[in-house]
Every structure is written in structure tokens, then in C-alpha cells.
Amino acid sequence: MKRGPLTRVLGEHPVGTAFVTPYVVFIAAVFAYPLVFAVYMSFHDYFFAAPGAIVDRPFVGFANYATVLSDPAVRRAFGNVLIFLVINVPLTVVLSLGLSTALNSAIRWRTFFRVSYYVPYVTASVAVVGVWLFLFNSNGLVNSVLGPLAPDPSWLVNSHLAMPTVAIFVTWKQLGFFILLYLAALQNVSADLYEAASMDGASRWKSFLNVTVPGVRPATTLVVLLATVTGANLFTEPYLLTGGGGPDGASASPVLIMYQRGIEQGNPDVASAIGVLLVIGVLILALVERRFVGREDR
Predict the structure, then answer these.
(1) Residues 66-293, CATH architecture
(2) For this UniProt entry, which segments traverse the membrane (predicted)?
């Protein structure tokens, strides 16, 4: 059957193409164009100029990347985000899977607990940060409970504890979203598998390891990838909790350094180089995680 010109342009399903097109335009405008423009800026001596001004932004090759890689603050920020991910991602997977399994069972007040875990996720970060600052400052509730065991300096002004504290805060705040993902995945695990395991004499722990964990593996892959991408884009929490990455850069993230270099200091070319390196690092990390965590999905 001969295909007409309209079919060649819109494909075999023009209605589907029409519905997809707005999203493609949105992705191109919000994600693709800024990424391409950031790559362009990272290879040029780019700076902000007055509207209508004629300026020369020469090509500088990898000079901006050399500046970034030689900056101790940037190197420390990338190290900080690795520490964050090592704490946040496993903790997110373990807690969200364990809590979703408990919430999926027949327990009292199940709906109440589901809503309670989701509330921090939908609450404004500024409001929640205020509570955590009250809890973890030097005279806060946590230190009052710990007494002589409390760290000195306190949690958020301690160079060794600032980033782990931020990681725990982010884990707690976003836990409700990942619990919902696991709850949806648990609905697809057949009850017959649990009955078969019970008939074979498997304990609840054995059933969890041999039925639940393999059954929700695709969700685990998604949770790991989302937690990694979210953690790599960390900005609000260290900016609010530690006063902009303190103490002395111990909780600074690459995105926070990008903001400081690009907006506060007026060096968008250097900030773009940091962003490109961050994108490359996240892609590599995501591919490694997809290979190992999701290897049984294929």
C-alpha cells in the first residue's frame, strides 16, 4: 500500500504523534536546549553582558574544564556528593522496601501510616528544614537527648557529620515517594508465590528474600536511578541546612558550587563546565547501577 505524504510525516498513527509532539517540544525546550547551550558555554569565555551589547566570547577549548578540575572546592563538592549517594541510596532502598512491605500487609492504621510517610515529601522544604534546624542545632532536642554523647561541634556545623546529616534528612523527606513506588510494585507480586513458599516451609524472612525482593526488582532499579539523579542534583538541602555548603565546604554539592560560580560570581562558563562533568558522571554511575541492579530485569 502506497504511503501518502502526510503518513510519511506523521507515521502510521497520526493521533498518537499529535499527542506526543507537545511533550517532545517540552523536552527539547526545557532539557535539550539548555544542555546543548551549557556545553557551548563550557568551551567559550562566556560572561553575562548588557542586552543588545556586542561582545566577543572566544573559544577557549578545555580551559574551563582545567579551571574546574584544579579547583579544590569543586573536587571536594564531587567528593561530598559521592558520600551523600553512598549513604542515601542504600538507605532509601532498604527503608522504602521494608516499610512498603509492612504497609502492604494487613496492619491496623495502614492508611494513616501511608499518609504519614508521604507528608514530608509534599511539605515545603523550607518548613521541614526549620524543624530539622531546631532538632539538630547545638541546643536542639537531639543533643539534649544524647547528652554527653552529642557530637561537638554539633551535627550541621561538624565537617565530618554535616553531609551525612544532610543525606539522612533527604532520605527521610523523600521516603514517602519511594514507598509509593514499592507499594505499586508489590501489587504485582502474586499471592500464589507466597503461598507456595509457605507450603515449602519458608519463613517470612525467606519469603521476603526469595519472593518479594526478586518480584520488585524493576522497582528497585527505578528507585536506585531516581535516588542517584536526585542526589546528584542536591542543592536546596545544603543551601538551607548548612548555610550554603558549610562548614568550610564540607556539605557543598556540585550544583551549589555551580550556583555560586555562575550566579554569585558571574562565571557561567565555569559553572557550565561543572554541570557537564556532573551530567557525564551521573550517566556513568546510572549505567553501572543499571548493569548491576537491573541485570535480572532483562
Answers:
(1) Orthogonal Bundle (1.10)
(2) 20-43, 81-103, 115-135, 161-186, 207-229, 270-288
